[in-house]
Amino acid sequence: MHEDIEKLRVLQERDRSIARAEQEIAGLEHERVEVNSRSADAESGHEAAQLKAKELEARKNALEVEVQAEQEKIRTYARQQMDTKDNEQYKALGRQQETCKETISDLETSEIEVLEEIDSHAEVSQAAKAELDEANAAKVKALGEIDERETNLKAKLEEFTSQRAESAGKVEAGALKQYDRLRARKGTNIVVGITHGACGGCHMKLPEAEVIVIKTGSKINYCPNCGRIVYYTRDMVMESD
Ligand SMILES: [Zn+2]
User: Fold this and answer.
1) What is the pTM of this model?
2) 47 CA to centre of ligand 1 in angstroms
3) What is the CATH number of the domain that holds 81?
4) Which of 3, 157, 167, 192 could potentially form a cystine with 201 if both were Cys, beta carbons 3.0 to 4.6 Å apart?
5) How many domains does the chain have?
């Protein structure tokens, strides 16, 4: 094998490590979104429970206000009864007070129902709060772990990058230029072996004469179809073998 091929393969390995680390770092952002959306569900559940509690409280207060208004009416009718000399009006005012008392009784029944609902909803609210606390604690832990992984990955990436620079420095300038050009266009599978007489990158059959040249390893060879750097080693399967 041509000695630059060896160096290029090392360089390609470095580039693959860099690409993997970069991909993993990019994936962390996705994980953060997932973690945040999980706790957002608990948050909206808790908010809904709080809203319902407020509504129940408002209903209870409204009923109390209505009761007070009816009591006020009773006091007014009682005062008017004291002032009247008319017997019929006196009786009518008495009936109005009775009607108010019936209304109050109905309002109080409704209030008891609301109070019962407030009681049972308190358990729902408590459960929602517990779930939110748990989700938030889990979020803090998960985000902490993601941050830690990111720190480690970035440290590795830095290491890979300096190793890459070292490896690149060993490759002959022309070959490196060609490699970098291919790297930008085709990713990290550009120094490829030939298998069954075909390019390991694009899988196109190579001309017989080309394979013979590649086999000698006297220079760097390129796939005539895709331009990848192709090489041959003894353990490769050849069409002619
Ligand atoms: Zn090819």
Assistant:
1) 0.68
2) 59
3) 1.10.287.1490
4) 192
5) 1
